[in-house]
């Protein structure tokens, strides 16, 4: 209303200035018009910023909303990059997504795979003291807490339900829903009506006339997710309590993340450097691993971990009679049966997958790092020739395990990279990327920082564009979402690198943009005023947080010997030979 009134006054002054008879009055009207016009533009700018802030606050994906505002500010339509498929019909997409695992499995040559897989599984012993798994009934409060944990996404499932709708209406049907869930758990039946998945094809990269360049985004029924969360919580509690999940697996486990997997890999490689050895690390790529999981083998493995009776039946029921259809260009395909793989987009699917590959590390006489289907083998030897020979041998062992378990190793994307300080192997491979971090042969992190600087430069550009679209608090919020999120990822691993100073320079540039400061202005006061930590402070904080979560790594000197020495109460720092090892997490954390 205020803007409308100003606009009317502005139009009135404009008409007076244009049509006035006396020159003196015209000049007065023109001056008043220009002043009011400047005020009007400022009001519009403020209203625009408030509207953008409200849009971001209410968005389910704030980062995406920020980038939409950036694109809109440079007059790029958000629809220009949206895929409009006229090449493939929904049925063609659906046929491809459902049958892709069959095409991949045609490369398998092993016979009697069920018998071989169970032979491997025996190596993963289950203690006799472990009691059989069974589900416990849940209360209405348990179900309410699960529903509250759902995101606020507004995407609709097969029934037109969204997470937000279920969260807003759950109180109306919490009692019958709880009774239904408990009946499912006790009888071992998963409702068939909740096994229908809606799939939306999303273009990745490459040529748009090739089906393998599209990723299926699966939307499972919201109520199915509620039941799956309850099942997965009880299942993982049982597996973790009895220590049935291998210690090499870091994916989809409570308290563990990609940072833990990165730390494990880096510490193993640095350990090689300390022992004057060379590490040949094989990064295995599995072809459509989630889609190729055999239901029969998975059920056998669940039985191996003492999941029996009605508990086993619900997993069998969950896997069978599943259907999916594709929605593309506002058209639906017909439904097809899904007889292989764990459901994509589900809560329970990833948990079942890590159980499926839980015994993989037992087949290799080397250190293994697993994050879901990302499999990394660390081969340590004094020379490159021995390391390469061991890497080939262990890759063959992995290949045998995968074949027995009806999974396929993509040999074209599986690479072995050498890490060492002195000896340079004859074979040179490109710097591999592991869980988003680029590794180099000496772990100096130079290549990763180069790639990170490119991302941060884009983020700085976005912050500049947002200066005219958001107020300072909004730009500060955007900083955390599109800038700091990049520099904090894996920071505990690469934060001590000498080239990290280059990232710090970009951070100061971003801070100056938020504050509207000059390029030569000192940043210390700006960091304090905005309440933003510097890169070195973020590194220290992340290291201390990691140590807080892993207190079992702290060992006092009096735990090593029984002598009553002056410093027996101090933390024992592990010995190291190289200056590079001074910046390892184990040493640096304890130093802090």
TrEMBL record:
Family matches, as PROSITE patterns: RT_POL (PS50878)
Coiled-coil stretches: 30-64
Residues that span the membrane, as ranges: 526-547
Top-level taxonomic group: Eukaryota
Residue intervals of the Reverse transcriptase domain: 183-439
Signal peptide (UniProt feature, chain positions): none
GO biological process: DNA biosynthetic process
Keywords of this entry: Coiled coil, Membrane, Transmembrane, Transmembrane helix
PANTHER family hit by this protein: REVERSE TRANSCRIPTASE DOMAIN-CONTAINING PROTEIN (PTHR33332)
Protein name in the entry: Reverse transcriptase domain-containing protein
């Amino acid at each position: 209303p205020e803007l409308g009134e100003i606009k009317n006054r502005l139009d009135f002054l404009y008409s007076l200035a244009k049509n006035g008879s006396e020159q003196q009055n015209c000049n007065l009207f023109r001056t008043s018009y220009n002043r009011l016009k400047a005020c009007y533009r400022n009001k519009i700018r403020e209203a625009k910023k408030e509207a953008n802030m409200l849009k971001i606050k209410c968005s389910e994906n704030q980062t995406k909303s920020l980038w939409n505002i950036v694109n809109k500010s440079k007059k790029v339509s958000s629809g220009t990059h949206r895929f409009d498929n006229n090449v493939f019909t929904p049925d063609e997409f659906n046929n491809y997504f459902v049958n892709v695992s069959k095409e991949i499995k045609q490369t398998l040559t092993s016979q009697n795979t069920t018998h071989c897989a169970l032979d491997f599984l025996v190596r993963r012993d289950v203690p006799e003291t472990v009691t059989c798994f069974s589900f416990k009934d849940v209360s209405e409060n348990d179900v309410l807490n699960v529903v509250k944990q759902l995101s606020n996404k507004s995407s609709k499932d097969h029934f037109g339900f969204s997470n937000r709708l279920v969260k807003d209406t759950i109180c109306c049907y919490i009692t019958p829903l709880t009774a239904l869930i408990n009946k499912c758990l006790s009888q071992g039946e998963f409702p068939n009506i909740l096994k229908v998945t809606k799939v939306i094809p999303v273009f990745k990269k490459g040529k748009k006339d090739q089906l393998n360049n599209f990723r299926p985004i699966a939307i499972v029924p919201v109520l199915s997710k509620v039941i799956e969360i309850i099942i997965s919580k009880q299942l993982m509690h049982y597996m973790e309590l009895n220590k049935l999940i291998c210690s090499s697996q870091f994916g989809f486990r409570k308290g563990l993340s990609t940072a833990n997997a990165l730390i494990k890999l880096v510490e193993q490689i640095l350990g090689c450097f300390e022992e004057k050895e060379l590490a040949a690390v094989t990064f295995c790529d599995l072809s459509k691993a989630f889609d190729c999981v055999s239901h029969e083998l998975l059920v056998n493995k669940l039985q191996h971990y003492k999941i029996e009776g009605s508990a086993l039946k619900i997993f069998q029921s969950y896997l069978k009679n599943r259907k999916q259809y594709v929605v593309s260009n506002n058209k639906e395909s017909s439904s097809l049966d899904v007889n292989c793989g764990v459901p994509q987009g589900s809560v329970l699917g990833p948990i079942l997958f890590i159980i499926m590959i839980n015994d993989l590390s037992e087949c290799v006489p080397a250190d293994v790092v697993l994050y879901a289907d990302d499999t990394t083998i660390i081969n340590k030897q004094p020379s490159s020739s021995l390391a390469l020979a061991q890497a080939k041998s262990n890759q063959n062992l992995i290949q045998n395990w995968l074949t027995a378990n009806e999974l396929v190793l993509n040999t074209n994307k599986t690479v072995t990279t050498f890490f060492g300080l002195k000896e340079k192997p004859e074979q040179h491979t490109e710097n591999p990327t592991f869980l988003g971090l680029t590794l180099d042969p000496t772990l100096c992190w130079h290549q990763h920082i180069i790639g990170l600087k490119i991302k941060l430069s884009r983020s700085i550009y976005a912050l500049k564009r947002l200066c005219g679209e958001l107020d300072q608090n909004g730009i500060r919020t955007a900083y955390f979402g599109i800038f700091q999120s990049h520099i904090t990822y894996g920071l505990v691993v690469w934060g001590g690198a000498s080239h990290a100073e280059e990232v710090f320079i970009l951070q100061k540039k971003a801070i100056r943009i938020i504050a509207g400061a000059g390029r030569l202005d000192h940043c210390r006061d700006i960091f304090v005023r905005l309440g933003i930590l510097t890169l070195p402070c973020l590194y220290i904080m992340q290291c201390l947080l990691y140590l807080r979560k892993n207190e079992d790594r702290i060992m006092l000197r009096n735990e090593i010997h029984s002598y009553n020495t002056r410093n027996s109460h101090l933390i024992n720092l592990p010995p190291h030979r190289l200056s590079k090892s001074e910046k390892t997490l184990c040493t640096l954390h304890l130093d802090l």
